[in-house]
Amino acid sequence: APGAFSLREVLDAFRRCVTEQREVLLEPYLSGWRGLIRFLQSLGTVFSFISKDAVAKVALLAGLCEQQGLVSVQAMVRRELAAGRAALRARPDSGSRTLLRLHRALRWLQLFLQGLRSGDSRTSVLCTDAYNASLAEHHPWLIRKAATVAFCSLPSRDAFLEIMNVGPPEEAVAMLGEAMPYISDVYSITQQLFEEHDLLDLP
Question: From the CA atom positions of the chain, what is the Rg in Å?
């Protein structure tokens, strides 16, 4: 089906993300995110509180890339820092702040997909653990509460592996294994960049 989620697309996008100079390219990053959003949407309304937000953030970043001809995350952060830290902190729609929100959600998905891959507990537990280790601290209590309730209704691990659209479960697991290092790489480069410039707590 058009618009259906495919793990292979996400893998390919994140594989294209990092250059030899360890820059994170925005076009494949956003493309990978569009795939992840389809993954969240294919799970029904459970994740809409995250997917709706991600859709808005991806659109905002794509717009910035186009207007400013930005190619990499590093170039975007450098450009925004050049205008001064105070100006950056004051802008709710800056590329850096928008990316930080996606970056935090990527961590949650990374942990969740890693958990799915090893599969030693129920998906609701995996998802809740991943959420508590990543996004929860950035969400108000009400959203945290709603999220953990929603996670209880998640489908089984096999259903998840089927949603990946790459054939039998063992193929999905193998491809998750292939995708994780690329996603982790993108995550850690971005994390380092934001740490270096002291941007991890942009309001």
Answer: 17
Q: Structure tokens of 139? A: 């969400």
Q: Distance between alpha carbon 107 and the CA centroid of its chain, in Å?
A: 6
Nearest alpha-carbon partner for 102 in 64, 57, 72: 57
Residue 32: which of 63, 64, 58, 71 has the closest Cα? Answer: 58
Paired with 24 in beta bridges are: 18
Domain housing 26: 7-190
Answer whether residue 197 is part of any domain.
no
The CATH number of the domain holding residue 92 is 1.10.3520.10
Question: Which has the minimum average pLDDT: 25-29, 155-159, 178-182?
Answer: 155-159
Residue 201 lies in a domain: no
CA nearest 27: which of 16, 38, 37? 16
Tell whether 200 is covered by a domain.
Answer: no
The answer to whether the beta carbons of residues 23 and 17 sit under 8 Å apart is no
Pair of tokens at residue 140 = 């108000």
Q: What is the pLDDT of residue 1?
A: 45
CB 150 within 8 A of CB 131: no
**Domain total of the chain:** 1
